[in-house]
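Appendix B, Record 12. Input sequence as logged:
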Amino acid sequence: MSITETEQEIVEEFEIFSDWMEKYEHIIAIGNSVPKIDQKYKDNAHEIQGCQSKVWLHAEARDGKIYYSADSDAIITKGLVGLVVRVFSGHTPDEILNADLSFIDKIGLHEHLSPTRSNGLNAMIKQIKLDAMALGAIKNH
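Logged structural output:
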C-alpha cells in the first residue's frame, strides 16, 4: 500500500467518528498497535527532541525500505507516533521524503492538538524524514 493510500485509509477511519473524544480513543488504539521499539533503543540517541513527552523512534533499513518502531510514555503521544509510523514504515527513503502528509489536516489533528502536542508531532515527522535522508544516503554509497 502506498503512503497516499495509507493516508486515505486513515482519513476514512477518522470520518467514522463524530466527536474528538472518539477520535482520541482511536489515536490511543493506534498507539497500542505501534511496532514496539527494542528496549536498547530507549536511549537519548533515539529520543525525539521537541516532544513534551518522551518519544523514542528507531529506523531500520531492509531491502531498500525503512521500517520504524517507536514508543512513548504518554498514551496520546504514543498514538501520534503510531500514526506516523503506520504511514511511513515499509517505504523507500524517496517515498518518505516526498510524502505530503495531507491526512494530518484532513483529519483535523493540528486544530485539535495542543500546541505542545502539535510541535511534538512535527518533531516526529522531522525525525522520520531525517532518518530517511540518512538511510537513503547510506544506501546510495
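Strands lie at 55-62, 65-72.
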